[in-house]
Amino acid sequence: MLHTLLISSTLALLGAAPGQAQVPIQADFDASQFQGTWYMVGVVSDDQAFLDSRDHLKMPVVLVTPLANGDLALKFGYSTPDGGCQKADVTFTKGAVDGQFSNAALAQTDIRVAATDYKHFAVLYVETQKGGVRSVWLQLFARAPELFPEGAQKMQQMALQVGLNPSQGALLPKSGAVELAERDPAGSPCPPQRAPALPPPPPA
């Protein structure tokens, strides 16, 4: 449930909504610079399901890979209650503008990378409409599993712009999935764990 909520909040932005033209898209978005490992360190939303469950959410790891056709492949890594790690694969389908994507599988369109410096932070603007209820989301991504000041400032500015209140936000604590990714040279979500070394056999 919480895993699905985080994926949905990260991906969905339904188009053609009033005021949407005010939401920026990163100028000259470069998918090759956007690729690699990110951590979702913060979320702000007026979605009631998020507000009800935000105290239980943990920081996911996201590995972004650009595809030859312009899409983005994303692998999410989430911690499980038993201390393990669970993966979810998602595809962002390239839209008409660089930095704008969609995800038909989740009935979500017009995903926007609103701001990023590629090296430290990225802010995604998200809008969902389910059962006739419209919700707005902002997600703050960072290259390291910690809050980056400039990214936090951008997110705060955009929150005011889209009508969100700081009290509707949450900073996501580090999780076991993050610790696994930090130990993996590739920074992959849920990297395979090495089997413990076996002791040498006793001498004959």
From TrEMBL:
One Pfam family here: Lipocalin
Region described as Disordered: spans on this chain: 173-204
GO terms for MF: small molecule binding
Signal sequence bounds: 1-21
Ranges of residues in domain Lipocalin/cytosolic fatty-acid binding: 35-165
Membership in a protein family: Belongs to the calycin superfamily. Lipocalin family.
Record-given protein name: Lipocalin/cytosolic fatty-acid binding domain-containing protein
